Amino acid sequence: MAGEEYTRLYSWGNDPKRKASQHARDIIGDDSVDIEILDVSKWWINKTVAEYYSDGNIFCLGDMVYRHPPFNGLGSNTYIQDAYNLAWKILYVMSRRVGRGLLKTYSVKRQPVGVDIITRTNQGLRDHHLWMRAIGMTEPDVEKRKAVLAEFKDKGEVRRRRRQQFHEGIENTGTEFHGLGIEMN
Ligand SMILES: Cc1cc2nc3c(=O)[nH]c(=O)nc-3n(C[C@H](O)[C@H](O)[C@H](O)COP(=O)(O)OP(=O)(O)OC[C@H]3O[C@@H](n4cnc5c(N)ncnc54)[C@H](O)[C@@H]3O)c2cc1C
């Protein structure tokens, strides 16, 4: 490969540097390519929300007040809406159209939305478990995962059952993929 290329990889479990190197080689399909892992950072699945978003003249928004898994596409959407809610209130107060009391409604309105999104996204994560299990992704052992995948090539009942489990798993994610408008929280 000529020159240098940089990419970001996701890996999980222990020894992330070694796993990321192996993962990169598997993707490239060439074990002779030199790979250097520049940095590894950990990311945890969370379910946390601040009890209030503002105190006096301090107003908080985004991931600093809620942490949740990336389901339903709610993280960026929500902080943009937090920002919008706060911005028009600041404009109204600074242009003296209303009193400062309006700013107190920011936390009152937006914090319950934070509670909703950490609840919804964590349920979204659980909703994915069925299809992952159906294709063997949740098996810790790679040989077992391969065996589960091989069942999809079976000619008879085994394959039918696997396909049905997979289908049910996909249906179980319906709230996430058919929840039109949920991002308008
Ligand atoms: C894997 C993954 C997938 C996602 N997918 C989606 C999606 O599909 N749709 C969606 O809407 N959301 C998604 N999100 C969520 C979304 O990325 C976050 O909710 C969003 O980026 C939060 O924005 P933020 O500005 O609050 O925080 P951040 O994006 O974390 O920004 C904070 C910034 O502050 C900087 N910073 C920190 N400390 C300091 C300091 N002391 N001084 C100066 N700067 C500092 C950081 O470097 C960073 O640039 C996903 C998140 C993850 C992890």
Report on the structure:
Residues 17-120 form the FAD-binding domain. One of its GO terms (molecular function) is FAD binding. With 185 residues, the protein is mainly alpha-helical. Helix content is 51%, strand content 4%. It has 7 helices and 4 strands; from the N terminus they run αββββαααααα. It has helices at residues 16-28, 75-94, 101-127, 129-134, 142-150, 157-171, 174-177, and strands at 48-49, 54-55, 58-59, 66-67. The strands form 2 sheets. It has a two-stranded antiparallel ribbon. A hairpin with a 2-residue loop joins strand 2 (54-55) and strand 3 (58-59). Bound molecules: flavin-adenine dinucleotide (FAD).
Name a few traits of the molecule.
185 residues, mainly alpha, FAD/NAD(P)-binding domain, 3 domains, two-stranded antiparallel sheet, 7 helices, 4 strands, 51% helix, flat, binds flavin-adenine dinucleotide
Which homologous superfamily in CATH is the superfamily of the largest domain? FAD/NAD(P)-binding domain
Radius of gyration: 23 Å
Strand ordering within the main sheet? 1-4
**Helix count, DSSP H or I runs of 4 or more residues:** 7
Strand tally, please?
Answer: 4
Hetero groups in this structure are: flavin-adenine dinucleotide
CATH-defined architecture of the largest domain = 3-Layer(bba) Sandwich
Percent strand equals under 5%
Order of helices and strands: HEEEEHHHHHH
CATH class of the largest domain: Alpha Beta
The low-confidence runs, each spanning 5 or more residues with pLDDT under 50, are: none
Q: For the residues shown, what is the average pLDDT?
A: 89
Shape: flat
- The CATH topology annotation of the largest domain reads as FAD/NAD(P)-binding domain
Q: Tell me roughly what share of residues is in helical segments.
A: 40-55%
* SS-based class: mainly alpha
Distance between the termini: 46 Å
